[in-house]
Amino acid sequence: MPARLTAYLPECAAERFVLSGDGPHPIGRADGCAVQLAHPSVSRRHATLAFAGDNWILADAASKNGSFID
Fold first, then answer.
1. DSSP letter string, 2-57
2. Would you say 41 and 65 are in contact if contact means Cβ atoms under 8 Å apart?
3. Mean per-residue pLDDT for 32-45?
4. How far is CA 43 from the centre of its chain?
5. Section 7-35 average pLDDT
6. What is the Cα–Cα distance from 7 to 15, expressed in whole angstroms?
7. Cβ distance 49 to 58 under 8 Å?
8. Beta-carbon neighbour count of residue 19 at 10 Å?
9. What is the pTM of this model?
C-alpha cells in the first residue's frame, strides 16, 4: 500500500514524498536514503519507514533530535 509522507522542517517549505509498500525506506540526509531531507536537524540516518501487515511503522534510528508523527 503506498503512503504519502509530508515532512515539516523548521523554517522550510513542507516536503512531500510517495512511498511504495516495498521497503524499508530510510529517511535522512545521507545519499541513498529513500527520503532525503537536507536540513541540519535531520541525522544522516534518521529513521526508517516500513510497511508491515496493514500498518506503516516508523522506527527512529537513534537520531539526535528524535522522530515525531502528526
1. -EEEEE--TTS--EEEEE-SS--EEEESSTT-SEE---TTS-TT-EEEEEETTEEE
2. yes
3. 93
4. 11
5. 91
6. 5
7. yes
8. 20
9. 0.84
